Amino acid sequence: MLKCIRIHLIFLLVTDFLFRQAVASKENFTGHRLFRVIPLNEQHLEILQKLHYHPPARLKHLDFWTEPVEPMESVYVGVRPDQRIALERFLFKHKISHQIVFEDLQKVLEEHAIQNQETRLNEEISIYDTFLTFDEAMDWLRRMTTRCGARCSFVNIGRSFEGRNMTLIKVSSASDANPAHGKTRREARGRPAVWIDGGIHAREWIAPATTLYFIDRLILHYDIDPEVKYLVDSYDWFILPFVNPDGYQYSHVKNRLWRKTRSKQSPEAECVGVDANRNFDFHWKSVGYEDDACSYIYPGPRPFSEPETESLSDFILSRNGTWKLFLTLHSYGQLLMSPYGYTTEKPDGYKEMMTAASVARAAIESVYKTDYTIGSASDVLYRTSGTSRDWAAGVARIPYVYTIELRDKGDRGFLLPPKQILPSGIETWEGVKALVLTIEKLEQSRTARDN
């Protein structure tokens, strides 16, 4: 009994130490609140959209966790203490209802930090219940690549602004699957390829965590799951967990709610970073952005100003003609979206994209009954330009392109508890498998019709 008490006390002391380490020197959000704002009609919606993209000076830099899309759909807004009264007066003036979701964001962030630190008391950190730091994830990827053997390769496609490697893992049973570490050799061009990425927005931790789960399944289930074996034998899988490694690491060590890259456009620049998902060279800066370097939706001074977006695009174009699917993971909202975001016009092959998306949605929902909405991005979310999704369809001409907005619908938002990593991975992986297999059937049907 005494031994158990001692162990428990040691556990509490270690947990407290880890907690203090986790929150020390981080940006403090004491007094920040999260508002849930509800536009009741089109007029309310227009007012909130104007507030988002063209805010008055007193309400600049509100943090829209979600954007105004439809009447009666909740909009989540992070508010600094010095702007709370101004926002409340603004909403009251326009008769827009709101609720307080989090009274004090700092307390919620500390709770989230301690949940993520507690899992590190285990002998080995697990991707199933821990949001890894960037370095921890790279170590895990190296171990998995070694374990995988000839089927896997660990490839650096570029460097971030701060010099971190942009490392993807390729999983394939093709004979050329394992080039020398960090290098690539000429690859067979006839083999279809699947691209999956996460972490383009730093604070969306569930996205990289879910890509790690995909890698785990492709490697560990190859010899025990016939479906996984078929997928690895039939496709080259390229998975980049961290499009924005600098921002992701910064969200771990300094500001949990950081979204952008960490680039500095000039030594004297007041604000840091670019929204990497507004920085692609396809209808760049046409809609859904704010031309303010301090804004979290700042598209950058020019297309591909960020080494991260340029490296991703260069790699995709270097293998053009092989891609069957481009899938980029975000959070949150539980959405499965095709292009386009910059216009309500639909891309070529939209009908087939929605057919495959419907099957994927059913597969996701079959696991835990998590409901997803499907459609084009401009229809189910909001208008955006310069996104990787639209670029992949409009420039790279990849036939099937999607954004997945993962769990949840706003209860915890970006601060999803670590205990939801595993269920998110399980259900989304079922959706991805169904998506790829359905795309294969659709392509076969098209080929049969053409012949």
In words, what does this structure look like?
There is one protein chain. With 451 residues, this protein is an alpha/beta fold. The protein contains 13 helices and 12 strands. The protein has helices spanning 2-23, 42-53, 84-93, 105-118, 134-148, 206-220, 226-234, 245-253, 307-318, 350-368, 377-380, 388-394, 421-450, and strands at 33-38, 63-64, 75-79, 97-102, 152-159, 165-171, 193-197, 236-240, 323-331, 335-338, 373-376, 400-406. The strands form 2 sheets. It has an 8-stranded mixed β-sheet, sandwiched between helices. A 4-stranded antiparallel β-sheet has the order 2-3-1-4, with helices on one face. The longest helix is centred in the C-terminal third of the chain and has 30 residues, at 421-450. The radius of gyration is 22 Å and the shape is globular.
In short:
With 451 residues, this protein is α/β, with parallel strands linked by helices. Helices cover 39% and strands 15% of the residues. The N and C termini lie far apart (76 Å).
List keywords for this structure.
451 residues, alpha/beta, 8-stranded mixed sheet, 4-stranded antiparallel sheet, 13 helices, globular
Number of helices: 13
**Coarse structural class:** alpha/beta
Radius of gyration: 22 Å
- How much of the sequence is in beta strands? 15-25%
Along the chain, the helix and strand elements come as: HEHEEHEHHEEEHHEHHEEHEHHEH
DSSP, total strands: 12
Amino- and carboxy-terminal Cα gap: 76 Å
Strand ordering within the main sheet: 5-6-8-7-9-12-10-11
Average residue-wise pLDDT: 91
What is the 3D shape? globular
- Roughly how much helix do the residues carry, as a percent range? 25-40%
Largest sheet: 8 strands, mixed
Oligomer: single chain
Low-confidence stretches: 7-15, 176-188
